[in-house]
Amino acid sequence: MNIHTILGLTLLCAALFSYPSFADDDDDNETAFEEAELFFELNNTDGDLGIHALIDGDPWKKLTIEDVNGRTILSIRVNGRLRRQGMTELFFESAEPTFDELSPEQFFRLFPEGEYEIEGITLEGEKLEGEVEISHIMPAPVGNVRISGVPAASDCDSDLPIVSSPIVMSWDPVTTYHPDLGKAGEVNIESYELVLETDDLNFAVELTPDVTVMDIPEAFTDLSDEFKFEIIAQDENGNRTAVESCFLVE
Question: Angle CA(69)–CA(75)–CA(77) in degrees, nearest 5?
């Protein structure tokens, strides 16, 4: 073996053994997003599905989201003065066409289950990253919704119940997956969200999974004689299922 061959092998070995150390340094320079959420939300009353995201962390100038197959589904590049300022918190909701336009089966094919990667570049050029597991298990909608003991209407276009103040909202706890869409699997409700709306004001409260009865402040229900409500069940996988309807107050 001549000197040129020995020198070549020596350089090759040095390159091979030094490469992992560069990769490790790269990993050390990556910072996790403080918050990185991707989830589905179903409006069970209207029959539509959407994908939502909540991302927060150090100021960034570029952000991408890749699906389980490594395909980019979102890419944001900040420009101009805003690029110098940087972005931090980002929340978005996709469009939510009805099932007549986009069936649940088609929707879930667009967004397959698995690990999605969220990557960003900070103002200083460092990497931000987050990994989110998306599931097709949707919680069932809340059932047996009652307003002061009176059964709720199926939607706001039906005959609405008329109740007297004070108002008490109640519903049965959700313990299983949605019976008609998504996939079967274990459901553990993380929280409920109750929203009441008038033409001008909203009342919203997040409740622990053991709370399925809520007294509505009379100071709010005295403001109008018609209210729209929404009750959302959120599973620990992040997915949310909502029902909505309306009622009248004497």
Answer: 150
Which residue matches tokens 């649940």?
Answer: 104
Residues of the chain where predicted confidence (pLDDT) is lower than 50: 1-26
Cα 37 to Cα 55: distance, rounded to the nearest angstrom: 6
CA-only gyration radius of the chain, Å: 25
Report the pLDDT value the prediction gives residue 10, as an integer from 0 to 100: 40
Q: Cis peptide leading into 166, omega within 30 of 0? A: yes
- Amino acid identity at 26: D
pLDDT at 30: 78
pTM assigned to the model: 0.85
Residue 163: predicted pLDDT: 96
- Quote the CA–CA distance of 227 and 216 in Å, as a whole number: 12
CA separation for the pair 58, 121 (Å, rounded):
9
How many CB atoms lie under 10 A from the CB of residue 13? 10
Return d(Cα 111, Cα 51) in angstroms, integer.
Answer: 9
Per-residue model confidence (pLDDT) at position 44: 98
Tell me which amino acid residue 37 is.
Answer: E
Give the residues across from 54 on adjacent strands: 37, 91
191 closest CA partner among 141, 161, 154, 235: 235
Residue 234: which of 34, 54, 33, 32 has the closest Cα?
A: 54
pLDDT value at position 28? 57
Among candidate residues 166, 226, 230, the one with its CA nearest the CA of residue 193: 230
Identify the H or E element spanning 227.
strand 226-235
Please name which of 194, 193, 196, 195 lies closest in space to residue 227, comparing C-alpha atoms: 196
pLDDT at 2: 45
